[in-house]
Amino acid sequence: MKKTTSSKKISFNDLPVAEAHCDGPCGVYDPSSARIAAEAVRSMTKKILDLVPPEPGDAQAVAGYLNTVGRFVAIKEEQAELAKRELLLLWTDYFKPAHLEAYPDLHEVFWNAAKACSECKQHVSTVATDQLMASVEKIHNMFWESKGREVTYFEAS
Q1: What is the tens place of the pLDDT at every residue in 88-104?
Q2: Mind listing the pLDDT tens digit for each residue in 19-71?
Q3: Which of 40, 41, 46, 156 is the most exposed, fewest CB within 10 Å of its CB?
Q4: What DSSP assignment string belongs to 94-143?
Q5: Class (C level, CATH) for 29-146
Q6: CA angle 74, 79, 82 (to 5 degrees)
Q7: Which of 121, 137, 134, 45 lies closest to 78 in space, CA to CA?
Q8: Which of 88, 86, 72, 87 is nearest to 40 (CA)?
């Protein structure tokens, strides 16, 4: 059996225009992933500050202490970067110029949140983690309000 093919060529001008608010039109956004990462940053920061250094002469205890500090710092760094990535995704892909009318401080809130992520990476500071968590809560409230939904902010920890 002989296959037949259409000889009609389609140009790009004939195709419908697809529009998306992000790199891939998934439509799935939720600030909770940033909150979870920020909570992990806060948790690791507290754990680091709560560690008690061992006596210098106990090599095994010093090694264990350094291992624990290294692990906690690595997790803190990873989660701060993840929080920043999640926040920047919301800022650049979800929020649009029209949102600035409702939230004139939108850029400042996101800027401060991203800076707080960096501050949490640079230091071991509960002040910085509190600033990050406060920014994440503001973003949560703006996000859900912009969608016309009332979603209670909560923390898992």
Answers
A1: 999 999 999 999 999 99
A2: 544 556 667 899 999 999 999 999 999 999 999 999 999 999 999 999 999 99
A3: 156
A4: I--TTHHHH-TTHHHHHHHHHHHHHHHHH---HHHHHHHHHHHHHHHHHH
A5: mainly alpha
A6: 130
A7: 121
A8: 72
Instruction: Say which DSSP state 81 is in.
Output: H
CA distance 34 to 84: 7
The predicted model scores a pTM of 0.81
Quick one: which of 83, 92, 87, 93 has its CA closest to 36?
83
- Per-domain residue ranges of the chain: 29-146
Please provide residue 111's backbone torsions phi and psi, each rounded to the nearest 5 degrees: -60, -50
